[in-house]
């Protein structure tokens, strides 16, 4: 399991937890490389997948085309805390 400690606003992340489907946990093997996991997370952050969304508000914003602006604003607010 992977958890962000800093709040992340994203369709595939809720309460810091990444949608397990996004990490391929159904096919998890003990020999999976950390590099592969990091690359998967980076790809997910850049390309939200609304078909496996766990944050429905953010998923709706992806469909509306407002997600990246809202996420940027939330990240800026979090950064000044």
TrEMBL record:
<dbReference type="InterPro" id="IPR000608">
    <property type="entry name" value="UBC"/>
</dbReference>
<dbReference type="InterPro" id="IPR016135">
    <property type="entry name" value="UBQ-conjugating_enzyme/RWD"/>
</dbReference>
<dbReference type="Pfam" id="PF00179">
    <property type="entry name" value="UQ_con"/>
</dbReference>
<protein>
    <recommendedName>
        <fullName>UBC core domain-containing protein</fullName>
    </recommendedName>
</protein>
<dbReference type="InterPro" id="IPR050113">
    <property type="entry name" value="Ub_conjugating_enzyme"/>
</dbReference>
<feature type="domain" description="UBC core">
    <location>
        <begin position="1"/>
        <end position="81"/>
    </location>
</feature>
């Amino acid at each position: 399991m992977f958890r962000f400690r800093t709040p992340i606003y994203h369709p595939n992340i809720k309460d810091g937890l990444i949608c397990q489907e996004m990490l391929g946990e159904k096919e998890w093997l003990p020999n999976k490389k950390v590099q592969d996991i990091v690359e998967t997370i980076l790809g997910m952050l850049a390309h939200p997948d609304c078909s496996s969304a766990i944050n429905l508000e953010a998923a709706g914003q992806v469909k509306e085309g407002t997600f990246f602006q809202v996420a940027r604003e939330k990240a800026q607010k979090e950064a000044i805390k």
